[in-house]
Amino acid sequence: MAAAVPEPSAVARGRGVLIVRNTQSGTAVIRADPGELIAERLPDADVRELGEGDDMAEIVDEAMRADAPPAVLGVYGGDGSVSRMAELARKHDRPLLAMPGGTFNHFARSAGIVDVATAIDALERASTVEVSAVEATADEAPPILALNAVSIGAYPELIDERDRRRAHLGKWLGGIVAAWVALRSAEPLTIVREGRRARVWSVFVGAGRSDPKRVATMQREDLDDPTLDVRIHHARGTRMRAVASLAFGKRTAAVLRALKLMPPRSDVERLVVPEFAMTVRTEPGRPSVFVHDGELEEQAEGGFRLRCVVVPDAVTVYAPEGGAPPAR
């Protein structure tokens, strides 16, 4: 159900807008601090800093209990921060103001939100779009909302390795080292789906349809498409192909494909479905994890059951008319 979108006059100068800034996002890239721009264009907004150890849900829930709760929930951060705020916007029936401030900003790019100014322009024009999402449930844990994709296998293990090295090397250099480690140590894992076993390098469950030529469905092509686009990369090729398949950009993927490093189409099974469930089995000593929009979730050793369901019209998002430019 679509959230009520305030008239532009109701949120003029940021009145009734709560913005949570994740100061930990975007550490892998150099970008201008948006503080001055936000203060100039939305001087009446309630801006909170999300530091290490802070809980976004606590900040939002406290604001919603106030005598004059915010009419719009905004966030400045990466994909993980945007997805967490989207879940809270859905919970409180508020539109989402997503300001890209991460390393990749997959969702923001899909929505055509190229920078903070574009997001503010959409707010001032009351330009919105209804966005479908993935709701992922691991075993008996509470469901998690994802705007881009949920995945198991090579990508979560790469994120796990990167996060282990992040404190010493930083996100960017840690990612390079993690990719090198993955090239040497990646192993397939076993999934069980509908009574059938399969050895796979990875499984990506994307919200809405993505480029059919890719394995990593991180950047969706249609925000309101009420389907899941599933890519199962069967373990028939090399570790090199397993890691190469994680390429997000079209140009990078094209180069890797020309070098014959990308897996052939026969190795990648594609399903377009409203829901998808599997049991994940991991070998002793291997991480039992999954990733949703770049955020790592650790599970019990040995494996877990993961169920993903599409949620149509999960959240109302401020976005420019016309949507996103062509993916690069």
- Helix content range of the residues, please? 25-40%
**SSE order, one letter for each helix or strand:** EHEHEHEHHEEEHEEEHHEEEEE
CATH class of the largest domain: Mainly Beta
Gyration radius, rounded: 20 Å
General description of the model:
- It is built from 8 helices and 15 strands.
- The chain starts with 16 loop residues before the first strand and ends in a 10-residue tail after the last strand.
- The protein is α+β, with helices and mostly antiparallel strands and 328 residues long.
- The model is unreliable at 171-180 (pLDDT under 50).
- The protein is 28% helix and 31% strand.
- Helix 2 runs parallel beside helix 3 (79-92).
- Strands 5, 6, 7, 8, 9, 10, 11, 12, 13, 14 and 15 form an 11-stranded antiparallel sheet that branches.
- The protein has 2 domains: 8-126, Probable inorganic polyphosphate/atp-NAD kinase, domain 1 (Rossmann fold, 3-Layer(aba) Sandwich), CATH 3.40.50.10330; 145-312, Tumour Suppressor Smad4, CATH 2.60.200.
Attribute tags:
328 residues; alpha+beta; Rossmann fold; Tumour Suppressor Smad4; eleven-stranded antiparallel beta sheet; four-stranded parallel beta sheet
